[in-house]
Amino acid sequence: MQSKIVIIGVGSVGSTIAYALMIKSVARHIYLVDINSTKVKGEVLDLNHCKPYVSAVEIHQGTYLDCKDADIIIITAGAKQKPGETRVDLLTKNIKIMKGIVDEIKQNLFKNQPVILIISNPVDILTFFAHKFSELPKSKVFGSGTVLDSSRLRFEISNHCKINAKNIHGYVIGEHGDTELALWSTLTIGGMKFDEFCSQCVHNAEHKKRNIKDFIFQNVKNAAYQIIEAKGYTNFAIGLSTTRIVEAILGNQHSILPVSSILTGEYGYTGLSISLPCIVGSSGVEKILEPSLSNEEHQKFNKSVLHIKKLIEINEENGEF
Ligand SMILES: NC(=O)c1ccc[n+]([C@@H]2O[C@H](COP(=O)([O-])OP(=O)(O)OC[C@H]3O[C@@H](n4cnc5c(N)ncnc54)[C@H](O)[C@@H]3O)[C@@H](O)[C@H]2O)c1
Q1: Does residue 104 line the site of ligand 1, with CB under 6 A?
Q2: Are 146 and 123 in contact (CB under 8 A)?
Q3: Tens-digit pLDDT profile for residues 28-42
Q4: Which of 23, 61, 184, 293 could bridge across to 298 with cysteines, CB 3.0–4.6 Å?
Q5: Which residue minimizes the CA distance to atom 19 of ligand 1?
């Protein structure tokens, strides 16, 4: 398979995505691009030294010219918050960086329409603007969204119930951030609804002592804060979550993943990118699903939509984008 992936932004996240793609033999050619070309040189050398232990894969120092026949372009580039800088200032700065990157990509596309996968935060807002700048179809530009948060949810449940995380099917949806929500009403363990499973679980008595759903969800929502406080960045789980999305695209798997994509009227909303379970294959997002939500979930989802829309509007109103 002559698959070609370009990763733009080769910091902690971009380099770990390259490593995960490499050791899982997902892509044949991986091109790394960053404004810090010395760092890229070092990462390419280091990654190439893995070659005796992995299947055939070529890691290259790339340029935007490499986008011309890429299957997927992954964007992880972004600026970090500086002392005294507000979140909104940082967001505006990162939208500008995204515009610069997408303009470069556009100039270098040939006849191909690659999938552009956004990882940089805030991922929902940056996906909305990346799509707008790219002028590509909605299906082709989407973000990693709550794929990572959903794996955190599955881990937390598996840890508490002592069940293999692979037997837990459930999603976090909404913003990749503070307004996200867990879809408890559709979550299943071994085909059983969460509450039904709980009633038969040997850990049930212990869990009854506290609101276990709330406890688990707080751990999910605060995971990134905890990791960043301890080590300064998150990289491993986003590396594998991104690899999972890439596998679904390159393998045309029609996998259901909660990526952040531009809504086309789902639950009555348009004009933003947000996570819902989506069918993902070689053409990108094939379909956005609309699971039945409980009243509480619906209210939380509406709140998440409004939060994202407000941040989009603030940046659209200043006329720059
Ligand atoms: N979506 C998710 O689930 C998720 C998870 C973890 C991190 N992230 C986000 O990923 C992004 C990267 O995180 P990180 O820890 O790797 O940061 P980092 O600072 O280590 O890396 C960012 C890289 O972007 C590069 N860069 C900046 N401007 C650029 C430009 N114009 N063109 C090319 N490269 C440019 C920098 O040189 C740097 O190497 C952040 O926005 C972070 O919040 C998202």
Answers
A1: no
A2: no
A3: 999 999 999 999 999
A4: 293
A5: 11
